[in-house]
Protein 1
Amino acid sequence: MAAVERVSADHPAFRTEAFIDGAFVPAASGRTFSAVNPATGHAIAEVSACDAEDVDRAVKAARRAFEDRRWAGQRPLERKRALLRFAELIRTHRDELALTETLNMGKPISDARAIDVRAAADCFAYYGECCDKVYGEVAPTTDDNLALVLREPLGIVGCVTPWNFPMIMAAWKVAPALAMGNSVVLKPAEESPLTALRLAELAAEAGIPDGVFNVVPGLGVEAGKALGLHMDVDAIAFTGSTEVGRYFLRYSAESNIKRVALELGGKTAFVVAHDVKDLGAVAEAVAGGIFFNQGEMCTAASRLLVDNRIRAELVERVAALAPRWMPGDPLDPDAPAGAVVSREHQGRILSAIQAGGESGARLVTGGTAVRTETGGAFVAPTVFDDVAPSSALAQNEIFGPVLSVIGFDGLDEAVELANGTIYGLGASVWSADLAAAHKVARRFKAGIVYVNCFDADDITTPFGGVKQSGFGRDKSLHALEKYSDLKTVWTRL
Ligand code: NAD
């Protein structure tokens, strides 16, 4: 990870108003909400609280832009150039964007720079490159027919995103949607709206036309709901909790049957067979898997399923690594972890920890708030052993640095335990027997499986879940399918 200088808390001038039709505008109601730095508990900006009226304004602007084809009708080469310029502008503003992300959601500045900004820029560049490389088809019909299969944009895409990787989650949706020629209305999480607003400004600077990329900050129950229910939004691309994902399916049913793609929660199983050769390396992967980004990861390795023959040793090794993941000042470039996103979220994590203790699980390390003197929301890396597979600790997504350890006897039991939640996002298996590991990989009900590794990632691979972790895939060329439709055009020759 690149070393960075300690960053001053003097923050850049944040953009705080909605970005609609190429301009920053206040919410029609004039209302605002506070963006809070979770590392201090202090408000850092007052952000426009958009509601149904603002969402309608943004959708109308997006519709105008779509219908006059100011974006979709451009030469694909020109759209590609604009998205590549946008990616480059993100890179140019790396320090400012990273600082904004860290101040707004608490993650370590080194991660914000090396991971969030880089991945967001790479994502726009990847999908920019797709603009002039995606073809339609000619169907193999009889000689007296010509049947074209055209791939067309959907129209208006509403993107609703969470706070754990605000820029990356926005990029995973906005970039393929724009590449296919759609207009976008992005509703960022209320906890972390600031980088989305700056991204929209940079997109305009890159030459993406007015009305094509709009951002409506606001509360989920106001702006998010209004977008979900809007009669002129053609599709919703949502990342967030399973609970809110259900709402978007209802909104669609109650409005215009807009299509909905859902990237939801997870409870990743990290399965370790008895024959692993390097238990130290496994322990490192487990600790990184659950404690990176304060455990605020949809794919966090929150359940360690380990063969009972090696369980005690592995638990001891993971617990020994926990201090290395102790949160620090997010602005300190050496901090391995930062603040969780809010005091409310800290409260939810601590409640889950308390309930875990009461359920009979054994607290091995952590379990408390730390750095309380800062006024910020920090949680110590926490490990529970002897977790009952049916307990809330093992079943519910905590979205914090809390590891639940469950023992098994044999890989059949491991697979049953791994598949024994409502979720199906990530899973991992570690074994010296690669054939056995791959057989387990096939039996996992999960969208992303890691064999003898964890959280490997690349923009070229599909990302998403099965079961109640949702459906549809972000990243890779497959994501383009979510933002386009097929049209068949027949000609009798
Ligand atoms: P959340 O579901 O609370 O909020 C997500 C978005 O939905 C926010 O923009 C929020 O404002 C909006 N929203 C909230 N209530 C709404 C409502 N009633 N109607 C319309 N919109 C509403 O999720 P979060 O707390 O921001 O993020 C954490 C969740 O995101 C976790 O469950 C995590 O697993 C999930 N996540 C999934 C992935 C993935 O790719 N599968 C990636 C990152 C995060």
Note: Residues 160-164, 169, 187, 189-190, 220-221, 224-225, 228, 239-241, 244, 247, 263-266, 298, 397, 399, 425, 465, 469 surround nicotinamide-adenine-dinucleotide (CB under 6 Å).
Protein 2
Amino acid sequence: MSSSSFTDRILFGGDYNPEQWPREVWEEDMALMRQAGVNLATVGVFSWAMLEPTPGVYEFEWLDEVLDLLHANGIGVALATPTASTPPWMNHRWPETLPQNPDGTIRTYGSRNAYCPSSSVYREFADKISDALGGRYAHHPALRMWHIGNEFGTVCHCDRCAARFRTWLQVRYGDLDGLNEAWGTAFWSQRYSDWDEVIPPRQVQYVINPTQDLDYQRFASDLLLGGFIAERDLVRSHNPAIPVTTNFMGFFKGTDSWRWAREEDLVSLDTYPDPNDPDAARDNAMTHDLTRSLGGGKPWLLMEQSPAGAGWRHIATPKRRGLNQLWSMQAVARGADGVLHFQWRASKQGAERTHGAMVPHAGPDSRVFREICQLGKQLAQLDDVIGTNVAAEVAILHDWDAWRAVELDHQPHSGFRYLDRIREYYTPLWRANITADFAHPEADLSTYKLVVVPNLYQVTDVAAANLVRYVERGGHLVMGPFSGVSDPDERIRLGGHPVPFRELLGLRIEEYWPLPDEPLTVESAELGDFTAATWAEWLTAEGATVVATFTSGPLSGIPAVLRNSHGEGTAWYVATLPEPAALARILGAACHAAGAEPVLPGLPPRVEAIRRGDKVFLLNHDDESVQIRDLTQDAAQDTAL
Ligand code: GAL
């Protein structure tokens, strides 16, 4: 196995749930998996009740058979700890294992994920079965990796979670004075005089304390991470050579994946873009880039995607012919060393009975299965990309705390959504085939030619200094609006925004000016005139060059886009939401100045190009075929977006 990857073959397969089927189907599964070129099956994700039918009594024999059968057919296993979904006996006999909503109601069993992460009963049973699985299978020849739980994201607001929250807060703030200070409890008579008074954000009369809300989001992520680590350590203790992962959900707000990823041996992703969404390919690319970046650029694993439709969607349109192959190649191009699906065989019963699968209800004589077989063949030819990297000259900053904070209650514009800002800045780069990584604001940025900050409302002092230093040392930076506003306690930084970036950007903001949807006009000799909407800022240049100015509305005459030289570098500030073409021009100018170049210039509009190792992947997202010019000819580099 290449030391830079977790595999020596491109992994291909999906979730395999043989416990839903009689033995004769297992035999057919093996034959079909071989036919399709499947080499990895994710097993046991929701098998807890079958593995432990009554408390403490394990029935592993059927799983022995499954693993042996897969092994005999040359198929590896990603073995799950089944702890995402508790057996009914647990919730029935120990109702305290059930999660509680903010309003005090209990989410009961009959679905999945019915557990309180703080429940000691849940934890003990989860640890015991993880340890038992580790003990039994850690040296099984089929085992390729551990898959801990599934899509962690359950949040509970019960009294046990309240107690755990207090402990978490004591570590963060030391004593009650620290907590009162951090949460600003002088406001609205919220001062706490005893730790027992401190509770999770529950159903309240009016707006919740924002820092309490934010801290609970951080705590909920850390609490789940503790469960992941407990299970990881148990399975690992039986054989440290087996890599451990859990399946992330891309831009999922509930878990801070920067913190999680460093606890994993490899990062894996579940992604379900909507085939009806014209921007799905862009969102897919963005999620792939995030996943690669979470793993520090190392190869990652596409753990789940649907080969057809996703049964939970309002309109579960299947992927059109070839689309699953296209999106699978996109993942490999953007750094995946494996492409798996949910799921192998379509269930005939249960909540997901209408979900797409590699073997659909129609059986192997189907378009979907034929395409799966083709994909298996194509992926098998790509072994020489294994372990190679995707080079990126641009970093887009992404921070879970900044995301959570900007979407707390009582922000100036409730329609100002963090991911919209990320998408707006990602889109022109993606369209121009300029590859971008995502980076944490405190990460080392020195290898990037350009750093893009779509929105960084909340920022730590360390991150702010990091960005300033990056530019001082010659970096190019583009920052979007409403950035640098608060500190990690959600305390507004005073004296004119954005306090930590004022010198860097050469400007001072007095007022944020959220707008109704009516666009404003903006004049710019350099960029061409454009419109902007939703957001503006009452600001004054203090050294920066004004690149664009509002010419209508209450901010007429106020700068909308500025550029400042700072140290050896250059920082742009975009104080509004320009129309897409104008934002593309801004980013194009910044890329040009920074020397960040497309993988291949001048490609037809919906053709995506990604360089991975010494290969360039070209992906046509258009329905029609396109003619590509002779790529062997040296073309003039062009960074116009
Ligand atoms: C994922 C999950 C799978 C399956 C799939 C359906 O969220 O991990 O178990 O439910 O969605 O799209």
Note: Residues 634-640 have pLDDT under 50 and may be disordered.
